[in-house]
Amino acid sequence: MSAPATEREKTGVFSPGRARILVRTLRKDRWWLSPLLTAVGLSAFVIYATVRSFVRTAYWVEDYHYLTPFYSPCLSESCVPGSSHFGTPFPELPMIIPLGFVVLPFLLGFRLTCYYYRKAYYRSFWFSPPACAVAEPHSKYSGETKLPLIIQNAHRYFFYAAVIVSLINTYDAVTAFHAKGGGFGIGLGNVILVGNVILLWVYTVSCHSCRHVTGGRLKHFSAHPIRYRIWTQVSKLNARHMQYAWITLGTLVLTDFYIMMVSSGTISDLRFIG
After folding, report:
1. Tens digit of pLDDT for each residue in 235-256?
2. Cβ–Cβ contacts within 10 Å for residue 26, how many?
3. Has this prediction a pTM greater than 0.70?
4. Which of 21, 24, 210, 223 is 20 to 30 A from 202 via CA?
5. Cα 63 to Cα 72: distance, rounded to the nearest angstrom
């Protein structure tokens, strides 16, 4: 008769419901490559976005009204003239506060609590677990029931904030159809801004929370044909949520980098009209 399980063996990574792997790994392939690449990719984006959010330079192109997403909306008197599409209700800010401080915490919360990103950083940074059939290095596991991980349960509320931010980014993209000296104009910057905002919308509405909002509580789809149709389309997008999560990181960097180059005078915007 086996000895009774200790308290440590009843919970966390040693509980009956968890895989028992006595060796470091049962894998013979390069299982570490995927979490490594994920860690490098996410770290590179975080470093770039953090630096760009604090430098306060080259984020606005006055001639064509290009505003980088990292500074939108710019609501402080510290913003350069013309970049504040919604006024300046806040006074000048110290350098330690990014000019996009109003929405950045919500965007960060939306990304951090995203179901895909949870999987990404749980595996790549916390090694919980780093891959299938690989032993976890942690001695206990409490799930998302305590701080800080309990905040993950607020993902649906961050989704609502992300919708508002996407609307703001849409307004920025429409406002940017501006020719030098006034009037209507189209340049490469417009193509990049519009492409970025479309992909941000796709990433936002492909979210699991959006899928739940549109049809998650319905008991009879036949009684709600419109919501069922929306839920069906969102479900199709949801199947590629991981791809959209990575693509939008790339388009955000591309959009910001292009506007930075044009604003700093390093390159000129390629104009098609105006």
Report:
1. 999 999 999 999 999 999 999 9
2. 13
3. yes
4. 223
5. 17
